[in-house]
């Protein structure tokens, strides 16, 4: 058993059965008084206790001790909201990193990243309000109000945690929320890291009429637009886990190297995260123009982020997310640090597809921009221009070396692809 499996969620006792039956770290949810709501609640086969158990099992594969707890953020959206949080290496004096997951996910999906991130700094990962084990309040149906509610929940969490400033990392929808938070509270963000962020590009005018998309697919997408994205998983009830296993075996395979029995644990975790009241999912639905685009895209908004806050984009080369938004934002922010990383062979879940490369990019970005921030502070002191230039040159040299390594990886990947094609042609 690893140290992480003995998390500090609550005091341990000799009777594990009693602990599982009456855990103290469970956010109880009510199904409503109407009989139909109760029936639907039971049909989905959702259970906060099951979600807690499978999360603990996945996180038991961490090598670094962690602590899990609820943070009471008060009436941020609902009457008394709580955000489920895990923390690691909180004794470190370095600036903390805060992680925001994407749609339908939770803290356990960072299992291949947390050890690496927490090696040199404090790390906090939260179940975004409306998802995972956090409270599931009713969000507004207005896209901008809904977005502000997410931002408010993050800010109330930060205040309760007494974090002055943080590196904020968001994946997919979490990247959209992180960007909106940085725009609202720039003094609290030292570095914005966006992993394959959702909601950045504008929706193309011909997105629904493309000839490449069959008519029946466009008709089905139009018919399902009023529904939440993951409605089918809940409609399947107790078969939801089986649906995840059969329809998304790729997600399960991503965690094979880190999680034993991943073929059962990951589908069960994803099912339990999304079989409950779709509070955050409904909020996502309110913010989207259609699944791939936001009503208020971030591409024309992030240019207004305070100039001294660096941004790092990390995209998967095979992702469905349009990475051109990162290039546009970089062109708009000529006086700011904007870096764009492309992880070859990775899809939308870039943090899980190529975790070693993703972790390296995140950690290197934090170190490089920490040096960059130090240089900015030096300019306000009596240090000589020569010393400042030497420090800046060192950072830029590191960046150039990193870009060279990235280009080499890309060239190697392209060369392998060419060889594979040539071999196929020869065999034919």
UniProtKB/TrEMBL annotation:
SUPFAM superfamilies attached to this UniProt entry: alpha/beta-Hydrolases (SSF53474)
Reactions this protein catalyses: 1-(9Z-octadecenoyl)-sn-glycero-3-phosphate + hexadecanoyl-CoA = 1-(9Z)-octadecenoyl-2-hexadecanoyl-sn-glycero-3-phosphate + CoA; 1-(5Z,8Z,11Z,14Z-eicosatetraenoyl)-sn-glycero-3-phosphate + (9Z)-octadecenoyl-CoA = 1-(5Z,8Z,11Z,14Z)-eicosatetraenoyl-2-(9Z)-octadecenoyl-sn-glycero-3-phosphate + CoA; 1-octadecanoyl-sn-glycero-3-phosphate + (9Z)-octadecenoyl-CoA = 1-octadecanoyl-2-(9Z-octadecenoyl)-sn-glycero-3-phosphate + CoA; 1-(9Z-octadecenoyl)-sn-glycero-3-phosphate + (9Z)-octadecenoyl-CoA = 1,2-di-(9Z-octadecenoyl)-sn-glycero-3-phosphate + CoA
Keyword Metal-binding in record: no
Cellular localisation: Cytoplasm; Lipid droplet
Matching InterPro entries: AB_hydrolase_1, AB_hydrolase_fold
Keywords, ordered alphabetically: Acyltransferase, Cytoplasm, Differentiation, Fatty acid metabolism, Hydrolase, Lipid biosynthesis, Lipid droplet, Lipid metabolism, Transferase
Entry GO MF terms: 1-acylglycerol-3-phosphate O-acyltransferase activity; carboxylic ester hydrolase activity
GO annotation, cellular component aspect: lipid droplet; mitochondrion
Listed EC numbers: 2.3.1.51
Enzyme class: transferase
TM region(s), chain numbering: none
Residue ranges constituting the AB hydrolase-1 domain according to the UniProt record: 96-355
Entry's Gene Ontology BP terms: cell differentiation; fatty acid metabolic process; lipid homeostasis; phosphatidic acid biosynthetic process
Compositionally skewed regions (Basic and acidic residues) per UniProt: 399-420
Entry-linked Pfam families: Abhydrolase_1
Ranges where the record places region Disordered: 397-428
Entry keyword Repeat: no
Function: Coenzyme A-dependent lysophosphatidic acid acyltransferase that catalyzes the transfer of an acyl group on a lysophosphatidic acid. Functions preferentially with 1-oleoyl-lysophosphatidic acid followed by 1-palmitoyl-lysophosphatidic acid, 1-stearoyl-lysophosphatidic acid and 1-arachidonoyl-lysophosphatidic acid as lipid acceptor. Functions preferentially with arachidonoyl-CoA followed by oleoyl-CoA as acyl group donors. Functions in phosphatidic acid biosynthesis. May regulate the cellular storage of triacylglycerol through activation of the phospholipase PNPLA2.
Family statement: Belongs to the peptidase S33 family. ABHD4/ABHD5 subfamily.
Full protein name: 1-acylglycerol-3-phosphate O-acyltransferase ABHD5
């Amino acid at each position: 058993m690893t140290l992480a499996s003995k998390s500090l969620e609550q005091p341990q006792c000799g009777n594990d059965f009693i602990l599982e039956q009456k855990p103290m770290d469970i956010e109880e949810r009510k199904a409503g008084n109407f009989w139909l709501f109760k029936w639907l609640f039971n049909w989905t086969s959702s259970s906060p206790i099951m979600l807690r158990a499978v999360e603990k099992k996945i996180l038991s594969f961490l090598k670094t001790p962690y602590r899990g707890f609820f943070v009471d953020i008060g009436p941020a959206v609902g009457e008394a909201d709580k955000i489920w949080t895990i923390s690691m290496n909180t004794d470190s004096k370095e600036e903390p990193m805060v992680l925001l997951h994407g749609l339908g996910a939770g803290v356990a999906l960072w299992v291949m990243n947390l050890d690496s991130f927490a090696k040199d700094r404090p790390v906090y990962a939260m179940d975004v309000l409306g998802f995972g084990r956090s409270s599931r309040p009713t969000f507004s149906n207005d896209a901008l109000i809904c977005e502000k509610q997410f931002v408010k929940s993050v800010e109330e969490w930060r205040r309760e945690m007494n974090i002055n400033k943080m590196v904020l990392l968001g994946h997919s929808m979490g990247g959209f929320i992180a960007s909106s938070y940085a725009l609202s509270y720039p003094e609290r963000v030292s570095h914005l890291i966006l992993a394959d962020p959702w909601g950045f590009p504008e929706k193309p005018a011909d997105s629904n009429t493309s000839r490449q998309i069959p008519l029946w697919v466009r008709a089905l997408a139009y018919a399902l637009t009023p529904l939440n994205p993951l409605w089918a998983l809940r409609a399947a009830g107790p078969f939801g886990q089986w649906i995840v296993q059969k329809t998304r075996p790729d997600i399960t395979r991503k965690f094979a190297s880190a999680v034993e029995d991943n073929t059962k644990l990951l589908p069960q975790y994803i099912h339990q995260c999304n079989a409950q009241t779709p509070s955050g999912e409904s909020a996502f639905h309110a913010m989207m123009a259609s699944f791939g685009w936001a009503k208020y895209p971030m591409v024309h908004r992030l240019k207004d982020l305070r100039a001294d806050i660096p941004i790092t984009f990390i995209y998967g080369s095979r992702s469905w997310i349009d990475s051109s938004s990162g290039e546009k934002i970089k062109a708009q922010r000529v006086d700011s640090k904007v870096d764009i990383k492309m992880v070859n062979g990775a899809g939308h879940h870039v943090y899980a597809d190529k975790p070693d490369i993703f972790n390296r990019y995140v950690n290197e970005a934090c170190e490089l921009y920490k040096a960059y921030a130090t240089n900015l502070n030096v300019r306000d002191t009596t240090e000589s221009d020569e010393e400042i230039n030497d420090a800046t040159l060192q950072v830029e040299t590191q960046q150039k070396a990193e870009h060279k390594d990235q280009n080499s990886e890309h060239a190697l990947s392209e060369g392998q692809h060419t060889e594979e094609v040539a071999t196929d042609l020869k065999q034919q």
